[in-house]
Design a protein that fits this description.
single chain, about 180 residues, alpha+beta, Alpha-Beta Plaits, 2 domains, 3-stranded mixed sheet, 5 strands, about 25% strand, elongated, membrane, transmembrane
Length: about 180
């Protein structure tokens, strides 16, 4: 969830909570708060309807506030603050850099990179799918690819890599693949 959306949801949640608590205080007379509004609630059906509506509003506001506070930020860009200014790293930058690195170091095809930028921790989560023509020792090759990705991202972008989820497949005989 983006930062702006989290802010709006959090603000909306707080408004709903305050509104529900205010109405509950008015309906049940917690202290001496505007007794004239209580006088308008003479009908018992209206009284219970308003109470039920306020409880639903209060629960909805709490749920929205919890989502806004604890949902992870899914950003399309990552801002790094350096002594000389700010640096913006986008998803497309990470994707292109990883694809070029893999093309330079390994014999892979059909490489797709799906980065997830975690703004609070200043980290990158990567999911990489690729087809390999080297059919010997796939687990060893996967470890080398994973280490190369982590090393290149940290050296070139200056951002730590939290996790690399690599799905490496063997190329089938006669399989048509796009080469990067």
């Amino acid at each position: 969830m983006s930062g702006f959306k989290k802010f709006i949801w959090g603000l909306f949640g707080l408004v709903l909570i305050v509104q529900a608590l205010l109405y509950l205080a008015l309906i049940y007379g917690w202290g001496v708060i505007l007794t004239s509004i209580q006088a308008m609630m003479v009908d018992e059906a209206g009284y219970y309807f308003m109470t039920g509506l306020l409880v639903v509003t209060l629960v909805g506001g709490i749920v929205l506030l919890v989502i806004a506070l604890f949902a992870p930020s899914l950003n399309r860009q990552l801002w790094l603050h350096q002594p000389k200014g700010r640096l913006r790293i986008s998803k497309s930058t990470v994707t292109g850099m990883v694809q070029q690195s893999l093309a330079h170091h390994f014999d892979l095809a059909d490489v797709t990179v799906n980065p997830r930028l975690v703004a609070r921790q200043k980290q990158i989560l990567l999911r990489v799918d690729a087809v390999t023509f080297n059919t010997e020792d796939l687990s060893g090759q996967a470890n080398l690819i994973r280490q190369q990705i982590i090393e290149d991202v940290q050296n070139y972008l200056g951002v730590s890599v939290k996790k690399v989820n690599l799905r490496l497949k063997r190329a089938a005989d006669g399989q048509k693949v796009s080469v990067i």
